[in-house]
Design a protein that fits this description.
By secondary structure, this protein is α+β, with helices and mostly antiparallel strands. It is built from eight helices and 20 strands. The chain has helices at residues 59-77, 85-91, 102-117, 127-133, 145-152, 184-198, 293-306, 308-317, and strands at 5-8, 12-13, 25-26, 38-45, 48-55, 98-99, 160-163, 168-171, 203-208, 211-215, 224-229, 238-244, 249-254, 259-262, 265-268, 283-290, 321-327, 332-335, 342-345, 353-356. It has a ten-stranded mixed sheet with strand order 1-20-18-17-16-13-10-9-5-4. It has a five-stranded mixed sheet with strand order 2-19-12-11-3, with no helix packed on it. Helix 1 packs antiparallel against helix 6 (184-198) and helix 6 (184-198) runs antiparallel to helix 7. It binds adenosine-5'-diphosphate and magnesium ion. Adenosine-5'-diphosphate binds at residues 122-124, 126, 130, 136, 179, 181-182, 185, 209-210, 253, 257-258, 269-271, 273, 297, 300-301, 305. Adenosine-5'-diphosphate (ADP) binds next to helix 7.
């Protein structure tokens, strides 16, 4: 690696972590007696498990408000809900521009920016390739070279025309389609944070699949701490923890999330837009911590595709996120800003952690 990497023995903390269905696990602790109660629960939406916990008097209001908001965003963005704005854009590919809400328009613009920032590693026009492999569907298959060439010919962000004045989106060629799966949950986390604050939320979090949004700190005044899954272990094995301040978001992309196996090969759902195949960069999990969910989610996918070296370069040039990388050989790399916020769990105490510096 070109970048200066320092080996450190990371502080190990003994934590008991609650088994959690998807994404992250909150640190488990006794709640203090006098914080005014809480509301927590798990629901299913946006194709994923959503966990929330809110403390204090506004807990009920915030909890139900979040559920309503999630359904509202889901119906605008889903690829699968036929009335969604995204479905309308896809149906009208090569036909006509489609007027969308300002919110959806902003998201499409952010997606384009992320694509530029990652030199095309993140590309929402990847839908025909995702569809062809069907990795998250009931009938995944390894495509032929010919099938793949046809699907890849339907990609191209320059052919997604966004007209700011008319607030329209237009895919200029028939057969093109967009897929916001790599960014929608992080974007939703941002909308939820804004709405939660409007509803008077003081402390709590929402975890949507591999995306987390935090408000305030724990009722005992300590910051929230979440466990990161070992990508090679089972769903209840946590490699380390990350401490998150008020307003933080965190997103993880892991090859273990959704995949299928054929002839001894594992094919996961993160695609390399340049090969049309599942990303094969040597990374098996990427976690991004930052202020904006949309950036964290998009970059976790992008950096997974880019691989450690390019990802470290991108981090060094930007100032708005930190990252944890796990390689296929089980090595852990963290960016400098997480030095005091990342800690290995007791079980992984012997794992070497390298700090990536600017
Ligand atoms: P998850 O959905 O498991 O939380 P991600 O946030 O990383 O994981 O998003 C993965 C989804 O993003 C895929 O299911 C697919 O819809 C889409 N996708 C896959 N590869 C890319 C890519 N290179 N650029 C943009 N979107 C992608
Ligand atoms: Mg993502």
């Amino acid at each position: 690696m070109s970048r200066k990497v320092v080996w450190i023995g990371c502080a190990v903390i003994a934590l008991s972590i609650v088994l959690y269905l998807a994404g992250f696990a909150p640190e488990s602790r006794e709640e203090p007696e006098d914080y005014g109660g809480f509301r927590s629960g798990i629901t299913y939406a946006m194709n994923t498990v959503i966990e929330q916990k809110w403390y204090g008097e506004s807990a009920d209001t915030v909890y139900t408000g979040m559920e309503t908001k999630i359904r509202e965003i889901e119906s605008a963005l889903s690829l699968h809900l036929s009335q969604s704005e995204i479905a309308a854009i896809n149906e009208n590919a090569g036909v006509q521009p489609v007027e969308v809400s300002q919110r959806t328009f902003d998201l499409l613009q952010r997606a384009k920016e992320l694509s530029e920032q990652s030199d095309g590693a993140f590309d929402i026009t990847i839908a025909p390739v995702v569809e062809l492999w069907g990795i998250t569907s009931d009938h995944p298959h390894v495509p032929t070279d010919e099938e793949l060439a046809q699907a890849m010919a339907l990609m191209g962000l320059e052919d997604l025309v966004l007209d700011e004045e008319a607030c329209t989106a237009y895919l200029t060629r028939p057969g093109m389609a967009i897929d916001l799966g790599g960014i929608a949950k992080g974007w939703t986390a941002d909308q939820l944070r804004e709405y939660a604050r409007e509803l008077g939320a003081e402390r709590g979090y929402v975890s949507l699949g591999g995306n987390l949004m935090i408000i305030g700190e724990r009722p005992d005044g300590d910051p929230f701490k979440f466990g990161l899954r070992d990508p090679q272990g089972d769903a209840s094995t946590y490699l380390g923890t990350v401490t998150l301040e008020d307003g933080c978001t965190m997103a993880t992309t892991g090859g273990y999330e959704r995949y299928f196996e054929q002839d001894g090969q594992t094919y996961w759902h993160i695609m390399d837009p340049f090969t049309g195949h599942p990303a094969d960069s040597g990374l098996i999990s990427v976690t991004i911590v930052g202020d904006e969910g949309v950036v964290c989610d998009g970059l976790s996918t992008a950096l997974f595709v880019m691989g450690l070296e390019k990802a470290a370069d991108l981090w060094a040039q930007s100032g708005d996120f930190e990252a944890v990388f796990v390689t296929a050989s089980g090595e852990v790399y963290i960016t400098e800003g997480l030095r005091d916020r990342f800690a290995l769990t007791e079980q992984y105490a012997d794992t070497p952690v390298s700090v990536i510096k600017r």
